[in-house]
């Protein structure tokens, strides 16, 4: 992964000039960008920004002593938008450049033509500019190779093998790194409203959409995941597994109803469990069977409830991607962001292509975008 990115994109280490930042800041950036073990915490953010002389003039910092930080974030964003454009180029078999890619490319050109003049050492400045220009050539080669579905010949010599699966893998890794560095370089800490912490008290939300009834949600991180009808209480279960996911220990769970009374009705004491967790999103999965026992049309569908951990908005994605029927689907943050965009912040009822184990078919889907706010009292 690291070698692949080194061939195609900008190097994020500005050699000697990087020491204009403190050693502490450099270590934090490296830890944040680490592909395998990268992380960002509130304490890391505090430690980084305490060495910035004037937080009120962030632009000046980013274009002078903080130049390493700026090119780290801009370079990572450039990579992300480049590979996203490469994915669409590969899928459509023609070169595609998104607006976001063109915008960040302008930022990188601005660095070459203007910001790089702030690097005092002429030799180092020339080396960095040449490296960036080479990366630009590799970027164009990547898009052309993706469109033709052929391996890419890099300027440096190595050949980069391309496939849709590999491009998606690269995007997934870059998105995580960019999310961390972008979070670090915001002067004010912006943490997820739902953090990756141990067991916490249940939290309750009312979620609204102008075209649908309100949705009431109970979110709870707990290891008590099964309701014992005899004891009438939630209990722990060892070796718990649902939807092909092992769920031992404290896990995020969800209960969601349009009717508030169902939260206290023993018939509906069932939690919804996650099938995907990232720094930004949870995806909870539920199979719904609304078929009447005495006959009528079969009404079985999957409900993927996607929660944005930062703004707490929910996308209720109802579809035919039922895990027990072995349909093929895979989540990453890019897939989720695309779904949020397609929902257009309201209600969508249409069809999508579903890849099944035996055949591919057109399945119904609904996208219901809810704006959620926390309720302090118990539902």
Summarize the entry for a quick read:
By secondary structure, the protein is α+β, with helices and mostly antiparallel strands. Helix content is 35%, strand content 25%.
Attribute tags:
single chain, 379 residues, alpha+beta, 2 domains, 9-stranded antiparallel β-sheet, two-stranded antiparallel ribbon, 9 helices, 15 strands
What is the secondary structure topology, with strand pairs?
Elements: H1 2-8, H2 23-33, H3 42-49, H4 58-63, H5 67-92, H6 99-113, H7 122-148, E1 152-153, E2 159-160, H8 164-184, E3 203-209, E4 212-222, E5 224-228, E6 233-236, E7 241-242, E8 245-246, E9 251-257, E10 273-277, E11 281-289, E12 300-308, E13 314-319, H9 333-343, E14 347-355, E15 360-375
Antiparallel strand pairs: 1-2, 3-4, 3-15, 4-9, 5-6, 7-8, 10-11, 11-12, 12-13, 13-15, 14-15
Architecture overview:
There is one protein chain. With about 375 residues, this protein is of the alpha+beta class. It folds into two domains: about 1-185, no CATH class; about 205-375, no CATH class. It contains nine helices and 15 strands. Strands 3, 4, 9, 10, 11, 12, 13, 14 and 15 form a nine-stranded antiparallel beta sheet that branches. The model is unreliable at about 10-20 (pLDDT under 50).
Tell me the domain tally.
2
Q: Which structural class best describes the helix and strand composition?
A: alpha+beta
Proportion of residues in helical segments: 25-40%
| Rg (CA only) | 24 Å
Number of strands: 15
How far do the termini sit from each other?
47 Å
Q: Unreliable stretches, pLDDT < 50, 5 or more residues?
A: 10-19
Task: Give the averaged pLDDT, no decimals.
Answer: 84
Overall geometry comes to globular
Roughly what fraction of the amino acids lie in strands? 25-35%
> Helices and strands, in N-to-C order?
HHHHHHHEEHEEEEEEEEEEEHEE
Q: Count every helix, treating DSSP H or I runs of 4 or more residues as helices.
A: 9
Strand count, sense and barrel status of the largest sheet are: 9 strands, antiparallel
Oligomer: single chain
